[in-house]
Design goal:
Elements: H1 8-20, H2 24-27, H3 40-54, H4 61-68, H5 73-80, H6 89-115, H7 121-138, E1 159-160, E2 167-168, E3 172-177, H8 183-197, E4 203-207, H9 212-226, E5 238-241, E6 249-252, E7 255-258, H10 261-268, E8 274-278, E9 284-285, H11 291-308, E10 311-317, H12 330-333, E11 337-342, E12 356-364, H13 368-372, E13 376-380
Parallel strand pairs: 3-10, 3-11, 4-5, 4-8, 6-9, 8-10
Antiparallel strand pairs: 1-2, 6-7, 11-12, 12-13
Helix pairs in contact: 1-3, 6-7, 6-10, 8-9
Length: about 400
Amino acid sequence: MQEQTYDTNLESTVISSIIFSPALLDTYNSKITKKLFFLPLHIKIITIILELNSSEKIIDEEILRNRLGKEFENDLLYILTKTPISRLDDYLEILQDYSLKREMQALAFDITNSLQSNTTGLEVQARVANLTQEIRNTNQLDLLEINNIEKIEDKEVEFICKEWLPFPIRTVSLITAPGGTGKSWFVQQLAIRAIQEGRIKKAFLWLSEDPKEISKNRFTKVFNSVLKLTDETIKSKIDISDSPTIQFLYDDQRRVEVSPLFSHFKVKLQEYDLIILDPLIAFYGTDENNNSSARRFMQLFTDWANKENKTIIFIHHSTKNTTQSRGASAFVDAVRTVYELDKIRNKDGVEQESHKRIIKLTKDNYGISNILKSFSVQRELFPIKVQYEETSFKTEGIQFGMPDGF
């Protein structure tokens, strides 16, 4: 299968975003170059845009239409139909990768032609060295961001759902629980509350273990019977998916690799402030007990959360007969907050108050215990008249499915 080396839709979106917001050229001045683009028309348009910007002239639709000519009017209109975005980081990262692949293909082609000619081995070696150095010079890696301490704006930690159960923003948190505890009920209430309080504009929940119809049923019960809300606008700001998950870290011929789909995934979820992924292990495709791999996996998400102001929450299965995180300790080490969810039981182990769950704060780097005034709280997750229980299978009468209350 031939490796993909361009994406004209991404190119169109970047150009559209710049036309609608020319200030992006200042933000990404070192990253936006003609080499990023594959389609000749896109190269022509971005060349005009860069020339206008360097001359400090206005960049708008009419000027571009005049410069391009009438024969490209429909093409320009198509580009302008692309929804502009305010952050280009992931788009540019993908286009940069494609650009580099095209350069490497050109290098391979040049080497092949040289070998088929009368060129000497030393001349071919010199040609390869020159071309690889040129590629290296034009594709510098941005290893780290350096800031002077005096120029950094200091901020207090901010939380969503501070009055209910605080989660720090711009970072990754972890919720662990045994199976059948009600994790999906919990996170749906969390998303609803986060939208209701106004700090989160839009939430996405990838609830991969349940059909979306079941998730919708639970959502409705939480919305109507637990929280008793009437503001229907909240629903328009919460999206879910039950699609098969993507393993963003996976084993490839004895090496652990980051999936190239991760950049596309970040682009896909750019509009969401709150992202909930259930379960963690479904997105992690290598040894669950390997701390090095777990650390690398979690770093992908902590970097994303910090750079793009995302609040990311993973749902993780607990070890057998406990509420503690399963697998490598690096999963817990990498996050700032961990909550453990469990049923409420009396001293004899009998479940009490089945509509509630006990929630323990087991990792707290941001002082959440000072807000809660405790490391253990109880919260209502289910309608009071519904006793939560796992889906049953009975051989007598052959009954399948969820209990009637679901």
